[in-house]
Amino acid sequence: MRNMRLAKREVTETEALRQILEDCDVVRLGLTDEDGMFIVPVNFGYELSEENGARKLRLYIHSAKEGRKAEAFVRHPVAALEMDCGHEVITGEYTCSYSYAYRSIMGTGSVREVTAQEEKIHGLTLLMKHTDPEASVDFLPEMLERVGVYCIDVLEFTGKKREKKK
Predict the structure, then answer these.
(1) Closest to 148 (Cα-Cα) out of 38, 76, 68
(2) 112: in domain
(3) How many domains does the chain have?
(4) Fewer beta carbons below 10 Å: N end or C end of the chain?
């Protein structure tokens, strides 16, 4: 990825990135199909790890197995991704001094359908844990057969924040 223009806003610490992931409810995926580009917001579960200085991020989403999004995953299995949280207006003395506080993650990843039942359960468990940590859900075999579960192996990503001055 390109270097961030305002490097002072880049989030590089793994735990700070994990907190952004935890605080965001939705990831927006930029996809392409024969009709062009489109954006779709989806709930997600995630795994973030670090080994030998290399960070690895994997997102899991669920969806119908048919429709525009599913077809795009098959035809062009690459997605741009964006998530943001911590929104707060930064006020100023004049219009151009107004801004917005936020934290975000942006990147790109490769998409694949999860077909193995064990990984489907793993991905859906992560999604449920992120969406409602208190929920206790059983995954019925007929539900697992019907639902599409997709894994996005994030190839590159950056975290960014703009904080409100104290």
Answers:
(1) 68
(2) yes
(3) 1
(4) C
Confidence of residue 82 (pLDDT cuts 50, 70, 90): very high
What radius of gyration, in Å, describes the C-alpha atoms of the chain? 18
Please report whether residue 38 resides in a domain: yes
Domain of 23?
A: 7-162
**Rounded distance, CA 91 to CA 99, Å?**
7
Residue 110 and residue 25 in contact, taking contact as beta carbons nearer than 8 Å: no
Instruction: Specify if 2 maps to a domain.
Output: no
What's 18's DSSP letter? H
Give bridge partners of residue 131 from the DSSP assignment.
none
pLDDT (tens digit per residue) in 12-40? 889 999 999 999 999 999 999 999 999 99
Rounded Cα–Cα distance for residues 44 and 24 (Å)? 9
